[in-house]
Specification:
Strand order of the largest sheet: 1-2-3-5-4
Number of helices: 2
Shape: globular
Low-confidence stretches: none
Mean pLDDT: 85
Number of strands: 5
Distance between the termini: 13 Å
Structural class: alpha+beta
Helix content: 25-40%
């Protein structure tokens, strides 16, 4: 289990890395309901994406955006891995988990 201070530092570092890479990053608890979201879990930092309604002007209930999710997941994996993080993708949810590197 990761220590809370180390995990908070990882959260901050991941957000900074993504911002430097050009992503507009928001906390998962932010009032905005869409976009790239970063949250802290018990043992990892998790990055996910919630689409904006503007992406589907027809308003389909089942729009899944798998192509966008796959491209974003790959970009996150590349950026975070190159930055030295231990990264794992969850293909089902489309989220990326970043674990603290154990010393």
């Amino acid at each position: 289990m990761a220590d809370g201070v180390a995990l908070q530092g990882l959260f901050t570092d991941v957000c900074s890395t993504l911002a430097r890479a050009g992503f507009d990053v928001a906390s998962a608890s932010a009032a905005e309901g869409t976009g790239l979201k970063v949250r802290q879990e018990q043992d990892a930092v998790v990055v996910g994406w919630l689409p904006s309604p503007e992406l589907d002007p027809v308003g389909r209930q089942v729009a899944e955006y798998e192509g966008i999710r796959a491209a974003l997941r790959q970009a996150l994996l590349e950026i975070l891995t190159q930055a030295g993080y231990a990264v794992q993708a969850d293909r089902h949810s489309g989220e990326v988990r970043i674990k603290p590197v154990e010393s």
